[in-house]
Amino acid sequence: MHCPFCRFPDSRVTDSRTSDDGSSIRRRRQCPECGMRFSTTETSSLTVMKRSGVTETFSRDKIVNGVRKACQGRPVTDADLALLAQSVEESVRATGVSQIEAQEVGLAILEPLRKLDEVAFMRFASVYQGWESLEDFEAAIQLLRLEDPSSEPNPQTSGQAVG
Q1: What would the pLDDT profile of 54-105 be if each residue is shown by its tens digit?
Q2: Alpha helices, DSSP H only, in the chain?
Q3: What is the C-alpha to C-alpha distance for residues 69 and 147, in angstroms, rounded to an integer?
């Protein structure tokens, strides 16, 4: 690390601390040449490879904006979306790779979104996975019901006549 004061090509780390969210490290450094102290912040880079082959830096904001459309009209707050984006980033970073395909990011969104709001999950999944027929929706609903038996429809509340 070059000293920002005298441009000496080396510096000594005197203290290191992780940030509150654990996503970066703050290092206190001292230049052995001029003796000046300065701080640096180090973060690991994570890039996303899109289908077109273009790469871009991972962005929580893009996650929030993409999921926000699926959550329109649902009881989901901005704080809920921020937590979802953080959860997605943590799971993607846990893979240990520095470059991930956009498809993998989308898959990482599905489970936390399902836990947050099943209707928003269905909306997002239908677009993301390219569902083209009612059978696609029915199959997804059936899977949701198998995973959560308490979500079975109640004939007394679903508007069906009970006889």
Answers
A1: 999 999 999 999 999 999 999 999 999 999 999 999 899 888 888 999 989 9
A2: 60-70, 78-93, 102-116, 118-128, 134-147
A3: 25
What's the N-to-C CA distance of the chain in angstroms?
Answer: 78
d(CA 119, CA 141): 10
Which residue is listed with tokens 């209707």? 119
**Residue 132 DSSP SS3:** coil
- Angle between helix 78-93 and 60-70 (nearest 10): 130
CA–CA distance, 157 with 85 (Å, rounded to integer): 34
How many degrees, rounded to 5, is the angle at CA 112 between CA 91 and CA 129?
A: 95
pTM: 0.65
